Amino acid sequence: MRVCLLTDKPDHPLLAAVSSALTEAKHRVTFLNPDTGTGSPSQLVTPDDLADVYLLKAHTPRALALARFLEARGARVLNSAASTELCQDRSRIAAVAEGAGLPMPRTRTLDALSEALHGAEPAESGFPLMVKSRHSRRADLVARVDGPAELRDLAAKWPNEPVVLQEFVANSGWDHKLWVIAGEVFAGVRPGPVGVPPDGTPSAPLVRDLPQAWTELALHTGEVFGLDVYGVDLLDREGAPVAVDINAFPGIRGPKGAPAALAALALRRSRPRADAPPCRSSCRTVR
């Protein structure tokens, strides 16, 4: 069986481990960087010699174009091009989440950050607020803004950046990272991206057993967005989880069982069986 990983970072720890596991099981693994060359991404593959399954780790426009080309020719791509593209647009994420009743911060979309300087109120809740690039990508904009002066400074640096303005969710200073691979939930805790944890907290809190509501929210998110491999960043707001970001095929650094789960998913999806058992849901915690 041939598994192709669509990525520009074949040495990423998760992908390297998946490749090793599949190779040891006598499967053929190839890597393809969709951003190679300047011609059409479709020129990178031979339509009559497709892999059994493609893992779409890259999220660039060329990667999405290649994934759509492969899907149109009957190839199996995880995650799908449509779901991956959806998760690159934070405005669309917020709209889909709201329609599905998923708990997310109130979100407003602007075509350019400079527009925030001309309204009466930058967001319904005022300050503080989160300012994020509308289109998720490497080195995009994610910042907490505590007042008009900070907003002006940020707009001076990113005047034409399409953004979303989100309600700031008061929290403990720690992000709860839930990664899901085909219904199996892995969990970790990381410092929040826009500040430091509270003074006097030496290390991340332990999350040995996530509340059922948290894992259910993570699993339901995948159903709503049509994802097989994804991450959900949750903040604890007075004991209830709030999703502040959803990522298609994140890096998933840390959980020991993640590479094996991903390799199993690739093999299972490449040869689906009507009698295959349902995905097992569990939660594993990493520090």
Structure, explained:
Helix content is 27%, strand content 25%. With 287 residues, the chain is α/β, with parallel strands linked by helices. Among the domains are: 2-86, Rossmann fold (3-Layer(aba) Sandwich); 106-167, ATP-grasp fold, A domain (Dna Ligase, domain 1). The strands form 3 sheets. Strands 12-11-9-10-13 form a 5-stranded mixed beta sheet. Helix 1 (13-24) links the parallel strand 1 (2-6) and strand 2. Helix 1 packs across helix 7 (258-270). It is globular and about 60 Å long.
Number of helices: 7
What fraction, in percent, of the residue positions are helical?
25-40%
The fraction of residues assigned to DSSP E strands is: 25-35%
Contiguous runs where pLDDT drops below 50 for at least 5 residues = 202-207, 271-287
- Global morphology: globular
CATH topology of the domain at 2-86: Rossmann fold
Our measurement of the CA-to-CA distance between the termini, rounded to an integer number of angstroms, reads 34 Å
Which CATH top level class of the domain at 2-86 fits?
A: Alpha Beta
CATH architectural grouping of the domain at 2-86: 3-Layer(aba) Sandwich
Quantity of strands, as a count: 13
User: How are the strands of the biggest sheet laid out side by side?
Assistant: 12-11-9-10-13
Element string (H = helix, E = strand): EHEEHEHHEEEHEEEHEEHE
Based on CA atoms alone, the radius of gyration comes out at 20 Å
Main beta-sheet strand count, sense and barrel state: 5 strands, mixed
Please outline the helices and strands.
Layout (H helix, E strand, L loop, with lengths): L1 E5 L6 H12 L3 E5 L20 E4 L4 H12 L4 E2 L2 H6 L3 H11 L6 E4 L18 E5 L8 E4 L2 H10 L5 E5 L6 E8 L2 E8 L20 H14 L3 E9 L2 E9 L9 H13 L12 E4 L1
Parallel strand pairs: 1-2, 1-3, 3-4, 10-13
Antiparallel strand pairs: 5-8, 6-7, 6-8, 9-10, 9-11, 11-12
Helix pairs in contact: 1-7
